[in-house]
Amino acid sequence: MTKTELVNQLAKQTKLEKKQAKLFLETLTGLVHKEIKKGKEVPLTGLGKFRVSRRKARMGRNPQTGEPIKIPAKKVVRFSVAKPLKDLIAPGGKKKTTRRKKR
Q1: pLDDT recorded at residue 103
Q2: For the chain, what is the mean pLDDT?
Q3: Which residues contact 61 (CB under 8 A, 6 or more apart)?
């Protein structure tokens, strides 16, 4: 689904004008950006949660030369999908299997 298709569906289902639906979507996006920039979480009930996560510095490898390189620590945005949404694709989630120990 493209942004235009999303705006059209929002407008149709909420009986708003397309301009209003587009403004709503842009405002929501702006609010998420602002809160993430502050380092706060943004939960969207039924969809998931945006949050800031820190990555530690680590050693990597240049894929072209194979030369080791140092990758610095940084902050990244993560999105955790809500369980009801996950269950639409894979109901029940992963099933745990028990293995017997060999004797």
Answers
A1: 56
A2: 90
A3: 67, 68, 69
Q: Are 21 and 39 in contact (CB under 8 A)?
A: no
Residues 6+ apart with CB under 8 A from 92: none
Q: Can you say whether residue 69 is alpha, beta or left, with left for phi > 0 and alpha for psi between -120 and 50 degrees?
A: beta
Q: Is 21 exposed, middle or buried (0-12, 13-18, 19+ CB in 10 A)?
A: buried
Report whether 47 contacts 85 (CB < 8 A).
yes
Note whether 47 and 84 are within 8 A (CB): no
Q: Which two tokens stand for residue 64?
A: 């072209």
Are 10 and 16 spatial neighbours (Cβ–Cβ below 8 Å)? Answer: yes
Q: In this predicted model, which residue has the larger pLDDT, 100 or 38?
A: 38
Q: What is the residue type of 5?
A: E
Q: What is the pLDDT of residues 76-93, one digit of tens each?
A: 999 999 999 999 988 765
